[in-house]
Design brief:
alpha/beta, Nucleotidyltransferase, domain 5, 6 strands
Length: 267
């Protein structure tokens, strides 16, 4: 019963300085998005993504940020039809508090922490379907990162979990984590779009008149992982550490709390 988890990000992992008004720096928010699929679903997802590219032949793109609004809506709607599950974690760096000093504003340690939160949620969800260690592999987008340190960190948490939610990592072999570059597997670009869709719910810039765009998330939310009531909060969508810390606009907060997904049959 093999599953592959594809993971990509939106925003920057830098936490030493972040953009706030006219102050330059990294993004205030950081999002990791994931697509989880079994082999047959991966094949279909790759095929459908090639069809997306053909339909959008006039647009040359590798990242969701390079697409126009209507193209993103089209892709989001088509992604909602794939037999996969989406996950994301979202962090507001303005609320890191003492943790920022604890890790000496190390962006790589911050990325690893967010990744661990995402993997905990994915593993917790898949355990419900009987997934074992040999069934799960993870693919990250290759980036300038110390992957050896990342693997050691995940292995340490896996072997000596301090919190109940970390126990789910027992179903993940850290050495089943690999990297690919954009363009090597269309499934990575689907994960990129998942992270982009969530990030746009909190992205405020002068170019969008400080009005976040929720349409892409609303389109793909039915395929997020969810609980027995269909709610995705805390299951498919993890807030670090709670929804209040995200400092969301009222409409976005309402959307996140009330979004429901299709109830799982298998994934």
């Amino acid at each position: 019963m093999p599953f592959t988890v594809y993971i990509d990000e939106s925003g920057e992992a830098g936490i030493a300085k972040f953009r706030d008004g006219d102050k330059p720096g990294a993004s205030k928010y950081f999002v990791l998005g994931a697509m989880v699929a079994q082999p047959a679903s991966q094949i279909l997802a790759r095929k459908r993504f090639e069809q997306f590219r053909a339909a959008l032949a006039k647009e040359k793109w590798r990242h969701a940020t390079e697409l126009n609004h209507q193209s993103k809506v089209f892709i989001a709607r088509e992604m909602s039809k794939l037999h996969v599950r989406y996950f994301a974690v979202i962090s507001n760096k303005a609320t890191l508090g003492n943790y920022k000093g604890f890790i000496n504003s190390d962006a790589q340690k911050y990325y690893n922490k967010c990744l661990m939160y995402l993997l905990e949620n994915v593993c917790s969800y898949l355990i419900r379907f009987g997934v074992k260690e040999d069934d799960l592999s993870v693919v990250l987008e290759a980036r300038n990162h110390d992957y050896d340190a990342m693997l050691r960190y995940i292995q340490k948490v896996r072997e000596r979990p301090l919190y109940p939610q970390s126990r789910s990592l027992r179903t993940l072999n850290p050495f089943a984590i690999s990297t690919l570059r954009k363009g090597e597997d269309n499934c990575l670009e689907i994960a990129d779009f998942v992270s982009h869709a969530v990030y746009q719910c909190v992205n405020k810039t002068p170019s969008n008149f400080n009005i976040p765009e929720t349409r892409y998330f609303r389109e793909i939310s039915p395929r997020f992982a969810c609980d027995e009531n269909g709610l995705i909060g805390g299951i498919g969508l993890k807030y670090i550490h709670d929804i209040d810390m995200l400092e969301l606009d009222d409409d976005v907060r309402h959307l996140f709390i009330n979004s429901r997904a299709q109830l799982p049959q298998r994934v």
